[in-house]
Specification:
Shape: globular
Distance between the termini: 43 Å
Oligomer: single chain
Helix content: over 70%
Structural class: mainly alpha
């Protein structure tokens, strides 16, 4: 079946782009989940949908508009929560709802729910073009290199901002870096998973790995492996049963989460 799947160029493009995006989302997701920013993916995906809808309605380049808008939204969310004027969950909910509403209104007043807009809402990974894959590869490489290069500082900021600041780490800079990398990953993943399910790529691998592993490094490694394996299995399930690719990936992620939870309970019983 794998050989048959790889004989289709559009499936090869989908697998290549999806693996890169899943890996980036999983690595960033560990830091976001530990800092209780797990829903930022959902909020930024709605911001991206609003920006993409307006761009499609106006005839602009969707990604050219969406990337800077989502980056600014991520920066704005961090500034609000750092100043203490609003809780992170409230800020995310406010921006999420507003952006989604703006995108829907712009769509209804102009082009209507076209194929392009629908693909960004629900995902259409099989429609990825060679240009989309090249863009994913380039930006994913930037995300992965920056994450590896800044690993120690991201670790320090994730667990104790006060200690990191005391050791000379510019906490604000690395908070912004995490937000920007997350925003870029969200925009890239929109076509794969859609605005409705892109946050699952950030949340599930980290939560799954935390059921068994306790160290930050082990969770990061496990999250990357779980994300890639679950994505490939989801694509195989989608191909076999003719189900939507994004939804299939999410259900496989859920299965992995339940499996790791079962392993955690068995280990607990043995220790008891």
């Amino acid at each position: 079946m794998i050989a048959e799947m790889l004989s289709y160029p559009f499936l090869v493009r989908a697998l290549a782009g999806g693996i890169l995006i899943s890996l980036c989302a999983a690595l960033l997701g560990v830091s976001l989940v530990l800092r209780r920013y797990s829903m930022i993916g959902d909020g930024l995906s709605h911001v991206s949908f609003g920006a993409l809808s307006i761009a499609v309605a106006a005839g602009w380049a969707p990604l050219g508009v969406s990337v800077p808008v989502v980056v600014l939204a991520a920066f704005f969310l961090l500034r609000i929560t750092e100043n203490g004027k609003m809780k992170s969950d409230a800020a995310i909910a406010m921006i999420s709802a507003s952006s989604l509403a703006a995108g829907i209104v712009a769509t209804s007043l102009t082009t209507g729910m076209t194929t392009d807009v629908s693909s960004y809402m629900f995902g259409s990974i099989l429609a990825m073009s060679p240009g989309d894959v090249k863009l994913c590869a380039g930006l994913s490489a930037v995300v992965l290199v920056l994450f590896v290069f800044c690993y120690d500082r991201i670790f320090a900021v994730t667990f104790d901002e006060s200690f990191a600041r005391a050791t000379g780490v510019n906490v604000s800079t690395y908070n912004i870096l995490i937000a920007v990398l997350t925003a870029v990953t969200i925009v890239l993943g929109m076509q794969m998973m859609g605005a409705m399910m892109i946050s699952s790529l950030i949340i599930f691998p980290a939560l799954t790995s935390m059921r068994i592993f306790k160290s930050f490094r082990a969770v990061v490694w496990s999250s990357g492996i779980v994300a890639v394996v679950c994505f490939c299995m989801g694509m195989m399930a989608s191909y076999t049963f003719s189900t939507p690719a994004g939804a299939s990936v999410v259900l496989v992620d859920l299965g992995a989460f339940l499996l790791f939870g079962g392993i955690e309970k068995i280990r607990g019983l043995k220790k008891g």
